[in-house]
Amino acid sequence: MVSHRAAPVHTHPDEVSVQTALATLADPVRLYLVRELASSDDWTRSCGSFDVSVGKAALSHHFTALRAAGLVEQRDEGPRRVNRLRRTEFETRFPGLLALVLRDD
Amino acid sequence: MVSHRAAPVHTHPDEVSVQTALATLADPVRLYLVRELASSDDWTRSCGSFDVSVGKAALSHHFTALRAAGLVEQRDEGPRRVNRLRRTEFETRFPGLLALVLRDD
């Protein structure tokens, strides 16, 4: 039996301040999650599929922050919560910012 | 008599990680300082010329962070420490980032 969770709450990038966007991306765990999602197809990565050193509660907190910054969309598929990077909407709101954090350097 | 301070230590933007750049700009006081410097001529603004609600020690800490992120250059002119935004170098290193934080929205 799967426990029922509240559906995730989302914020559209248009409602996000540049300060929030920067603060959200400045965290190394969130930066890693964004980079992983950028190299994965939409809705293929569950929250449990990331190789992070933080606990479940901390990881959940990071996903909440990513949703609140308009960076990630989530939906529940049975027991899995799957993710996509809101690449197009975020790019429209903050042109070039994703490209900066996704580049190799 | 003016107390002698150590010359400020600078970091070139080329040596700055994107994570440091984002974290530095995500702070509201530092964002304000960067915006003020962007609308001022180089070397015209002393550290004491900004209308901030933080104390001297905190302000000094913010300027240290701005230098460490390659955002601000400082030099001492007698008793004044004056500033310039490293607009060109920072733009070369992080294209579009300054424009994002300087725009009105």
UniProtKB/TrEMBL annotation, chains A, B:
The residues covered by the HTH arsR-type domain are 10-105
Spell out the Gene3D superfamilies in the cross-references.
Winged helix-like DNA-binding domain superfamily/Winged helix DNA-binding domain
InterPro entries, per this entry?
ArsR-like_HTH, HTH_ArsR_DNA-bd_dom, WH-like_DNA-bd_sf, WH_DNA-bd_sf
What Pfam families does the entry give? HTH_5
| GO MF term set | DNA-binding transcription factor activity
Q: Which domain of life is it from?
A: Bacteria
- Protein name per its UniProtKB record: ArsR family transcriptional regulator
Q: Which organism is it from?
A: Streptomyces kanamyceticus
